[in-house]
Every structure is written in C-alpha cells, then in structure tokens.
Design a protein that fits this description.
By secondary structure, the chain is mostly helical. The protein is 43% helix and 6% strand. The protein has one domain.
Length: 252
C-alpha cells in the first residue's frame, strides 16, 4: 500500500479501503477504515463535533452489503447481533426507502444496540441519525429521531451531566419546549457545576424564544470552547464522548 501523503494534525481522514469479513454473515466486502483528526471548530450544544470532523459522517460506520449489519467496524459483532439482523424489524429498517441511505446506516446501528441492551449507545447512534437528517434539511425526521434518542437515553441507566444536557438540547431541537424546560429545571435542582449552569442558562433562553436552531458550545462557554478540541474521541459507542467537555463539567 502506498504511503499516504502527510496531512495536518487537525484533518479528519480515512484510510484506503480493504477487504473486511462481516462478523454477522461472513461476507467479504471492501470497507474504509475511518480515522479522525481533531475538530477545529466548537461542537454544537448536543456535542456534534465541529469541522472538519463534522462533515465526515459518511465514514463513521461501515455496513455489510449482504446482511446490512452496520457498526464502526463490521468485523466485530455485538452478542446476539446475528439474531437482530436476521429479524423482520431490522430488515424493514434497512430497506425503508423513505429514509436517506446514510440515515438508515445509523438507524441500523442504533437498532442493533437497542436490541442488545446498550441503550445509551443506541441513543447516541439515534442522535447521529438526526444529524444526518439535519444535513439534508429533513427536519421531520430529525425531530422524530431526536425524540427517540431521548427515549433511549431515559430507558437506560441513570444519566450523567453530559447526557442530561444532551437530552435538553435534543428536546429543544425537536421543539418539545415543555419537556426541555422540565429537564432544565430538574438539572438546576441538582445544583450542577457552573459550566453546566452556563449551558443551561443558554438553553433556557433558547427555549423561551422557541429557537430550535443549532447553537454551539462556544455560545455558552467562551473562551474554553474555542480551544482545540479532542471532543471527537471514541465516537459511536466506543466509550465516553468528549473528555474535555467532561472536565468542564467538573468530572475527572
């Protein structure tokens, strides 16, 4: 394989495609391995990373062309994934022509995670499906999938501060104004750290104005949110998101 040309440290990129064996159906297919560089712009309030990583979602998940299994790496399968992929709900989901193809990939991964008990990771994948709908200006789908992400987060173990803030933002972006305010009030009652209060203060203003648009963390937390970001590390269910943001939230 030829040595790739050097790229800036901040550039998000992918490696050349190679043959990968699907862990679910053992089919071989050519898949790109994605490697992400640090985003240079602040993330959104729901922690969608800034550019250049923001525009690379098409490479975040692999998908088997035979069985439709989608995951960050399809050579690895979650326990019971084969059963989920073979079932009618999954087949219906990956063949739903009314949903954009990239969105279906994230929905497929979210479905596998949900059916195998990883509720918070499923919520993350569902939110990422909403991001793909945002990019296509499919606000009907984006709203619906944000509400599904909230339901998945709430059906799993107790939420930490980062996840609770993301729930607030998902509800606001879905125009669920009363639900967003209830979530904000519940967080304030728990006396959160100052950084969380700053984010919640912005969310409160946005909800009061019925503003469902995208806003960045930099709007709530200048200047720390303008520092170089390592926020993208371990995306798509591979561990905790946004270690730097957790530090702002006072968790070490």
């Amino acid at each position: 394989m030829a040595t790739p040309s050097p790229q800036p440290r901040s550039a998000a990129h992918k490696s050349a495609p190679g043959e990968v064996v699907c862990a679910v159906c053992q089919a071989e297919s050519r898949q790109v391995t994605f490697r992400a560089g640090a985003p240079e712009q602040a993330p959104d309030l729901d922690l969608r990373p800034g550019e250049p990583l923001r525009s690379t979602m098409a490479h975040w998940l692999q998908q088997c062309p035979r069985c439709g299994y989608a995951a960050p790496e399809i050579k690895v399968a979650r326990p019971s994934a084969a059963r989920v992929v073979a079932a009618a709900p999954f087949r219906s989901l990956v063949n739903e022509a009314s949903h954009p193809p990239l969105s279906r990939r994230f929905l497929a991964w979210a479905h596998v995670l949900e059916e195998t008990g990883a509720m918070h990771e499923a919520a993350e994948a569902m939110l990422q499906a909403a991001w793909t709908a945002d990019d296509l200006n499919r606000q009907d789908l984006a709203r619906a999938w944000r509400l599904e992400a909230v339901a998945l987060w709430r059906s799993g173990p107790g939420l930490d501060a980062e996840q609770q803030v993301r729930v607030v933002d998902a509800l606001r972006r879905a125009e669920a104004w009363d639900g967003a305010m209830d979530a904000i009030d519940a967080m304030i009652e728990d006396d959160p750290p100052e950084a969380v209060r700053q984010v919640l203060a912005l969310e409160t203003r946005l909800v009061a104005a019925e503003d469902a648009r995208r806003h960045t963390v930099a709007s709530a937390l200048p200047p720390p949110a303008r520092r170089p970001h390592v926020a993208h590390q371990k995306i798509m269910g591979r561990g905790s998101l946004f270690g730097w943001f957790r530090r702002l939230f006072g968790r070490r």
